[in-house]
Every structure is written in structure tokens, then in C-alpha cells.
Queue: 2 jobs
Job 1
Amino acid sequence: MVVGFDQVSKTYGNVRAVDGLSLRLHPGETVALLGPNGAGKSTTLDLLLGLKQADTGTVSVFGLSPREAIVAGRVGAMLQSGGLMDEVTVAELVKLACQLHPKPYKVTDVLARAGISQIADRKVNKLSGGQSQRVRFALATAGDSDLIVLDEPTTGMDVSARQAFWATMREQADQGRTVLFATHYLEEADAIADRVLVLHRGRLLADGTAAEIKAKAGARRISFDLEGEIDEAPLRALPFLTAATVSKSGSAAGSGQTVRMQSSDADATVHALYGLGLYPRNLEVAGLGLEQAFVAITEAEEAKEATQS
Amino acid sequence: MNALIKLELARALRNRKFLFFSVIYPSIIFLLVASQGGTGATVDNSGLSVAAYVMVSMASFGALTAVLMGNSERIAKERESGWVRQLRLTTLPGRGYVLAKTASAAVVSLPSIVVVFLVAASVKHVRLDAWQWFALTGAIWAGSLVFAALGVAIGYLASGDAVRPITMITYFGLSILGGLWWPSSSFPTWLQDIAKWLPTHAYAALGRAIEQSQAPKAQDIAILVVFFALFVGGAAWLYRKDTLKA
């Protein structure tokens, strides 16, 4: 077991940032940690890295305490708020990280892998946001660590930089490392992670592959166009709907409208749609994206909490 | 930890503004102040010439500048930027960061002491025995650790915009009231009563005792030891508080 959280809680004043969290990470997994702002992602990572101490419960990393695991060189981490030492060059800083790691790589290799060889002589305080992120990544991968932890690693990067970044990240995972990253770009989690953890108010709401999370949200998207004026009431009354919107489409005909709906049983909904005697055009039925699944899951949880209280 | 000390040092030596204020500036003030007194004049019955008296003041002042400014502002800034947190994810031991900062500040403070001595000996013809030069350098250098600890404490106490004014007030307050700029004997009596309890006053008195070939006064050593314990204790307490909070 790489990481074990056992009934871990952390409270700030009245806020329960992490609430009885239990989870296990296994060797070689690439795991995404998702959650809305304030869900407890950063606190969870801080507890995992020993930057914060749990109020109750235990956190172990490779069977050791977080600090012991770091001293043993088994963990490399990149923090969202990880400032850098200024007035030194990129190469000097990476060299420091290598010197501090018990199982270091060669500085030139670390620079090359992070894609910052060209800016090695530049001062750290003269870098763009995306370049700084790459330097932080280099610090996290300066040695042969078994677990790499990344908190919002692609913040401040443009799309192509993000893609390049994940390509380097995948290399790390392919070498058998466990990678844990927090992100709010859900397409990243969808594309990269073997496993997705959805955190909400400090609790684990869902844990599975991206496909399983989408299935858990239980809904599919249905969209079609209708000609002429539409009576919305029977559409909204279709069975198994979780959401429905009717909007004017920009089609050349001018009078057409697009209807989008989400259904927990798309087959039954479409069947009932034809039963209304309508002639839907351009009918599409598709699975939810991870993002919509994520919203559906967290909204369902909030609704549940609202009825309980 | 040696790796961090080396990098801190390389950075300090690259920072011209910092080097100017800690290494060159004390010598300039020395020349300005020492030139005011006549060659034969002595300061408040100490038997020391103005040049010899001011030399110790300015060497102490230079060392104080290097260690206090070097520590406080950098630590506060790097705490805020998150660099301190990032370092906690390395094998560097918890105290390693503070020790590396202090060690690199101490390396810069040594030339600031020696440069004042060189200028005093060559331009103002201050003459002392060889053992006195060595003892002076050692005493002023070792004594600067008191203020390095103070710098660490301020760095962990203040944050962001507050650290500079707090450092400046402490720095000028201790320098002026401790008699590093003007002899404290020129102060009104009530101020002298305060000044003699300040660590900077005891610090300079230590150097002057060596110039007079006397043993340092027990009171001065006691004051320095007490302040050192106070500053180290405060710094350690603030450091632990910051670590739990981060």
C-alpha cells in the first residue's frame, strides 16, 4: 500500500476540512483528486505530506509517517502554493533539489525531462506562470521517488503546455510510480487518471474509474431539434428526466428549437418521446462528460444534506 | 544542508545592494565619524582614540546589519511565498533552513568586520597587537549570532509588508540607542540608563574591552547571553507555531 488514510479528520475552528476520510492508494495507480473549492483537497494533500497533522485518525505513506517517507526519498511533491527561492537560476534550484534527494537523478536529466533545459540559466523570479510550474515539477521529480503528489499542477499553463506536461507526467507513471494529483480541470482527470476520487465537504463521495464515476451519476444526455412551436409541459413530464432545457436553435429554418435533457434511463425517455407523436430530428444520445457527472454527484449530495437538515 | 548554505551564500554575494549596505557602508560611516575627532582625542576616559572607538562601533554595526537584515526579511518573504513549505517536502531537517540562513549571513558579516578593520588600520592608523585584532574579529563575529537569532525571530513574527518597518525600527533603535553611532556617554542620563541594558551596547563594550586589553565586564557578557537565550527561545517558539499553522 502506498498511502493509507484511516478515519482521518481535520478541523479549523468550526469548519471540518476533512471528515473521517479513509482511503488507500496502490502502487502504480494514477489517481485524480477532484472536488469543488473548499472540498478539502489541499488539506488532504497537506495531511498526506505531513505539512499538517490530523486531529484524529492516522495517515501512513509506505507504512511510514509522512515525514519519514519524505526523508527516505520516497515522495516527491509539488504544491500549489509552493513558492520558489528567488534570485537564483533554474539550474541552481534544481541542483539543490537533487542534492537534497537521497536517490537523486542527474541535474541535466531532470531539467530535460521537465522541459526547462532552455531556461536553465534564467533567474527563477523572471519566469512566466507556466514556466514556474515546470520548475516546481522538476523539484518534485529530482530523484527516484515512488509517489509523486501534485496539487493543481497545470494552473497557469495554456492548452499546449498542459498537454506537454501530462505527457511527461505519463512517463513518470509508466515507470511504475504512483501519481496523485488534485485538479479542477475535469477533462484532465478523465484523460489521465486510472482512478478518480471525488471529495466533497471533506468526505469521499465517489471512488472509481472515470467511467464508473460517470455511471454513478447515472445519466445520459439526450438532444434533438423540433420544428415549429413547442409545448414544453409534456416534454418536461417525460419519464426518468433529471434535467431538461429548451432553447432556440440558430438553425437556418429559424423556427426550429433544440431540446436538451438528461435522463437516468435514456431508452425509456426516447421511447416516451416518440409516444408524444413528435418527430425529433438530429437525435443524439450520449454519456455524460466527467464534469457533468461530477456536478450531478455533488448536487445530489447537497440536496440530500438539505433534506436531512 | 550544506547545499542550501552554498546556494544561500551564492545568492547573498550576488546581491549588490545587500553587500553594499553590510560590507561597504559601515566603513564609509567609520571614515565620516572618525574624521571628526582629532588624532590625539580620546573618548570618555576610555583611553581609546576616536578612530579606535568608532572602529569597534562600526564593525559591530556592519555585522549587525548583515545578520539582522539578511535573516528577517528573507525569512518573512519566503514564508509567505511558500518556499519554506516546499523545503519541508525535502529531506532538509526542520531547523536546516534557519541554520543555513544564519550561516550564510555569518559568512557575509565576516568581511564587513574585516573591511572596517582594514580601513581603520590603513587610513586612520589604528594600531593594536596581533592578538587583539584576532580577538576583536572573533568576539564581534560570535556576538553577531545574538542578532542573527533576533533576525530569525522577526522573520517568523512579521509577515509581508510589516517585516521591513519592524526590522528597520529594531535595527536603527538598537544601533543608535546602543551607542553604535554616537557614544552613549553623550546621551542624557535617563537614556544612558536604558542604553546600558541593550544587547548592542554590551556587544560594542565587548570589543572595546579587548582594545583596552581588559577582560570583558561580566555584566556585558550576561546581557548578551540573556538576550541570546531570549531571541533563540522566541525564534524557536515562533518557528514551531508557524510550522503547525502552515
Note: The mean pLDDT of chain B is 88.
Job 2
Amino acid sequence: MRDLLPILKSLKSNYTAALLFVLQVAITFTILVNAIFLAMEKQSVIARASGLDEDNVFYVATNLPVSDDEKAAQLEQDLIKINEIVGVKSAAVSSGIPLTGWGRLVEVAVNPDTKYDTFSGYYGGDIKLLNSFGAHIVAGRGFILGEELTARVDGYNYATEAIVTKTLAHSLFDTQWQSIVGKTLYINNKPQRIVGVVDTLQAAWPSWVVVEHGVISAVKETDGIINFVVRTEPNTQQQVMAQTLEYLMSVYGRKIDKYETFNAVKKRAYSAENAASKTLFGVIFGLLMVTTLGIYGQSRYGIVKRVKLIGIRRAMGASKGEIMRYFMLENVILTCVGVILGIISAIVLSITFSNAFELGTVPPSYMLYGSLCTLLLGQVAVLYPAFRAAQLPPAIATRIV
Amino acid sequence: MFIYYIKLACLSLWQTRSLSFLAVLIIGVGISATMTTYTINYMMTKDPLPAKSERVFLVRLNNWSPEASYRNRAEERPPTYISVQDSLNLMTQNKAKGHIPIAGFKDMLKLPEQSAIDAEVSVVRATTRDFFSTFDVPFLYGSSWPQSSDTTGEQVVVISKALNLSLFSGENSIGRTLMLGENQFTVVGVLDDWHLLPRFYGDSMRAFQPPREIFVPFQTQINLELWTSNLQSYECWKEPENASVAALWSSECIWVFFWVELASADNKSEYLDFLDSYVREQQALGRFQRPILNQLQTGADYLQERRAYSRDSEIAVWLAGCFLALCLLNAMSIIMTKFQGKTAEVALRRAVGASSADLVQQYALETGIIGLLGGMLGLVLTQVCLYVSSQLYTHLSKDIMNMSMALMLATVILSIVSSLIFGLLPILRAIGVQPAEQLKSL
């Protein structure tokens, strides 16, 4: 610590270089903290649970190639056949698939004749639908056989019972969310009794504010394109998918609109978030490279300029360790000043971002970890130049003077 | 003199080649980060129809249930799409220069001679011939269908260059036929490469994806009753009378984005007056039982309202800007190091009579060359980064990752100017040396 005074004195005599160094550290810190925060936010969006058994679910969008009055029977037969395929855990028909970007939304109200309380995604299907998605009931019960209905379109207009997601129950009844079971909700102004609550089931639009809100009813729809949701035993997805398609194509007039595994759906849904977070990590990497290079170069230059000084100190009896310690301490001091400036500007930037782009502000823990990282980065960058400085022979002093 | 200074600058750069190279590299990296993010952001938010943006509008009519406002919004706003019957009525009344309904369907596409197994699900855009003229769509072969096809609903198609390549191996396919489901269509036009960014005219969620590959007249879709329920969003406040497609066409279900091109921006209020009188007419027939809130909206405003622009790209530009500042600071300290070694040279030149203006000129030239090289390196790196981004951002159209000539020029100028500004301090410090003092130490 007795090096402190000489360090400060030498900084005063060469303040431009010191100022540049401090500014660099401050800017690095500002970008680092904000970029990591943004990247983490993207990652946490991607990591949200969809509520599905993601690895084992796929869907096939197809038609029912028969006349309108035979559609219900054809659907029934298709479901029986698909459920019979070896490796199928559960197969069902659904009006939509989470995160695909195409689905239905309904208005949900607690009281009749009021405007809606909130919006929600909607899925209608047979009683096996929840099991085929892999969603878990956390309160109440699932649908039972007698509750199943068939409609041509817009099943929510016919349903009498419904299951909601926990998040929806929460937003309507707060901590009393379990009490929603048995109550009547008004879905698009139609009274429906809530029989159960599922843990999570995301709606069709990943960037929707209320993506976690879901209403599920036991009404199968037969019009247009329908979706078969198939949940398989682990590691059988590929062959089950092939067999399902083979069966479906054996019916004359069948059109396969689309088939996809849920993992593929999810990957597509979050491709923007994925790309953005990859870009941010790229920025962070480039930033660290440039800053490390900069600190290295400046320390090296500072040392070359002070060869004479080092030689004299060595000749006067300073050990190699002391020389190294001197330069590392100098680095710590400058980095600390930079980090303090950086914290201020990072907060300013983060507040600016959160005002302009509706983002959260960077939590204090990021500042702490960011400071430690920056300090470490500075030390790593100065290590080699300081080591080289310590290797200078004391005799060099006599040569230059 | 100028040539001599360039020679001197090159000599000096060569003498300090590793430092100069480092400075060029760092400036290049900073420039490329900024320009990559800026290019992506610029392409995503630019005006897609610069010449016409003030006279091409989305028509919004307040067609919704008498009981509640559309989506129960507190501040009532009309839906973004209109019903089939209103689209047809507005076209029949023909009060605008161009009418562009945006509809479509999915069907199995194949050549007549191919078997059903080879047919592929294709998404078709149904619109009018005005689509091609208003949106300045370039044609490779043929042209858009004639006005008569729009009125009678002929079975004609315009296909994209890519589809022409895969179906007809790129040759002039005018007059050839293809099958969409059960229906045979005749090719009347093949598009050239066409990039419209952002693609504002349809669903805002797909604003950054390429246009569809097949175009048919809107009236043809109506006549043939082609409807795909899970393709576009549609909303009905009143159920259609029955399950048939014909009933859907005459229902109050809304799903057609309807654009108009007016002859000039001055005609906007005139057209709004017409819309008001149209809605009043319809009100007399028992429709439109809500307040009249007709609206003509530009493409940019529509995308803004629908939040189609991701703010990520804007944030990235800000971060990259900070990064560039960091890189320039870094380069500045390198240049300073470079000039520090030159105090003796400066002193000598001052002593033999060079004015400080001469020296500023000379060293500014040297810094400028570093900036120029950095800018050019940045340009190359930007192209690499844009290529990588186009691989990474698979959800965006590849065309976003294109750099215009103006942007390239801006890159190089930005690099030179910023390195001159940041290089000024080292230069001033270098010439501020007292000649006598330095000469003594030589």
C-alpha cells in the first residue's frame, strides 16, 4: 500500500493517458452490464415453460375429407386410430397449438354483463387434450366423458364447462386462485363453470402480454383445418409421426397442411429472441476483446515509458514482486475509478432504455458482478506487461542514465 | 506538398506498423458493429414506399357489434380489416386511384401433368391488379392481369421469380397453366426480384417476411369460394347465416386488409368524406350501428400501432454506438502512443521552420489515412457480419441484410471523421512540444 502515493503522483503527471483508461473502463462497464442484462432477459423469455411435454409432443394440421354431417364420425375414427398407434401416450384434437402464432382468443369476465376483465388464449378439444399436451391439473379435475361436445366452429360458444390456467385464475382472484374451481366465468359473455386449473399452458402468441392466460374447453371443432396433438413415449416420436402421417394419408381426399414437433414450434416462436441474445453475446465478446487489448496495450506502453524508473527502483532494492504489485495496483485504482463512473453511466443508460423501450432496469446485483468482472479483466490484461516489467534487469538503469 | 505529406504519412505508418495496424483493426471492428446494427435497424424501419407513403392508406371502418366496441377498448378504434362485402362495395364505387384488397387462401399447387402426390401446400395472395402498380412490383415476363380479370374473376395468376424457377425452370411461362386445388389457372405474369421492406400491407406479425409467391385476382377467390380458416386472422361479431363460404362472404366477418392509392395527398379528406357517406348509406340499411370512426392510415402508422417494429434492433444500435466510442477511445490512446515516440521528430521540424499548421496538416493526414483504412476494413467486416446475421436471423427476410451505396459511403466518412476528431488530441499534444527542450535531449 505504500506504493499508493507514488502511483497517484505519476498519474497526475500523465493524466491524459489515465483519463483515457478510465473512460474506456467506464464505457466497457456500461455496455457490459446493459448487454448482459438484455441478453439474460431474452434468455428468461425463451426459458419460460410452455406447459407442454415439449420433447414428446408433435401436431399434424389436416382436414376431415368428408361431408359436413359425417365429420364428427370421421374425427372420432381418426382419434381412435391414432391412439392405437404403438408409442402414442395420448392423442387428441385441438383448435390450436401453443406458440404457433395462430390461435383463438376469448374475453373473460367474472361478472355477467360487464366488459371483459382480461383476455385469454383458447383451446378446444376432446377430453384427452390436456393429457396430450402434457399439462398438469393443479386444482379441481380434468374433463370427464359426459362433458365432451362437438361443434362446427368456435367451440367456446357451446361449452358449459371450462378449465383455466393458474396464471389466469391468479389474475382474476389473486391469492384465492384455487377458489375459482366451481365458480362461473363469462367467456365471451357466455357463462361457463370452471372445473379445474392447469399449471401452465401458453397461448398461441409468444409476445402477447397475457400469453400465460388460457381457457380450455371440451368442445371438438370439425370445420376446416383441425390439429391432431400427439404425445408419444420418449424416443418414439419419429416413428409415431411417420405412422400417424401414413394412417392419415390412407384416407381419400386428406390434405396434410402442416406437421411439426413442438420443439420446432418453440424454436421458431423464439427465433427473434434467440438471435437477439446471440447478437448480444457477440457484442459482449467483441467488447471484452477490444477492452482487454486496449488495457494490455496501454499498460505495455506505460511500462516501456518507465523503463528507466523501473531500473532505478530495481537497483535500489525493490523485488520483482514489488514491481509487479506496483503496476497491478495502479491498474486496480484506475479500474475502480472507471467502474464508479461506469456504474453512474450504466444506471443512466438503463433508465433511458427502460423509459424508451419499456424494459426493466438493471438490478444492483448486475452492477456488483459487473464491477468484479471488470476488475478481474483489468488484472488479467495487466498481468503480462507487469510480469515483463518485473523481469527488467536492474542494470538497465545504469545503461540509460 | 500534399503528395509529400502522403509519402511522409505512409512512411510513418510503416515505421509504426504494428501500432497502426492495431488502430486500424480496432476502428474497423467498432465501425462494423455500428454499421451492421444500423443497417439492420435502418432496413427494418425505412419507408417501404417513399414516393407514395402520403397517398397510400389502409381503410379502417368501424364495423363491429352495436353492444360493445371493437376488442372492448376504452378508447374506441376501428378494426384493421374490413368485410368482403365492404371491399367489393368500395371497389365498385371506384372513388380512389387504386384499390388493393389483401386476401388469400391456401391450396395444393401442382402442374396439370404432375400427380396429386407432388402437389405442395402453397399460400396464395388474392388481390387486384392495382397491387402491382401501387406497390411498384417489377415484372420479369408479362404483366399484371387486365382490369377485366378483376371484375369477372378470371382464373389467372402472377407468380414470383423463385416459383417460376422451380415450376417452369425459369423460362418465360406466360400462357402456361398450373393447378391450385381443383382449379386451373393461366400464368399471365412473372415477377422479377421484389423486396418490400417492411412488408406493411398484410398481417403485421409477418412484416419482415418475404411476400407470397402466387397472386390471383380477389374476385376469383370470391367466385371460387376458396377459404382457409387457419391462414389469416378473422373476427366475426355476428355469426354467418350458415356454414357455407358464400354466407361468410356476405357476413359481417372482417378479415380483408383494404388499401387505397389516392391520386394525391390532397385527396385524403375527399376520400374520407366518401367513406363517411358510404357508411351512412350502409347505416340506413341497418349495418354499422356504431359511431363512425373511419380512418385512413399510412403503412408506417399501421405498423407502429401494431407494434411490428422490434425495439431490439434500436437498442442494438445504441449499444453498438457506445461500443464504437470505446473503440475510438482505444484507437486514440494507440495514436497517442504513436505520436509520443515522435516528439524528437516534431521538435526537429519545428526548429527548422515548419509552422504548427503544417504539422497539424501532416499528422491529420496520417490519422485520416488510419481512419480511411479502418473504414474500409469496417466495410468488409460489416459485410461479413451482415452475412452472419442473415444466417442467424432466420425469421427475418434475407433482404434486410443489404447495405446501400449511401450507407457504405457513410461508413467510410464516419470512420475518417471520427478518427480525426479523436486523433486531434494526440496531434495537438505532439505539436505542443517545446522545440528547444526536446532538441536539448537529443
Note: Residues 64-254 of chain A form one domain.
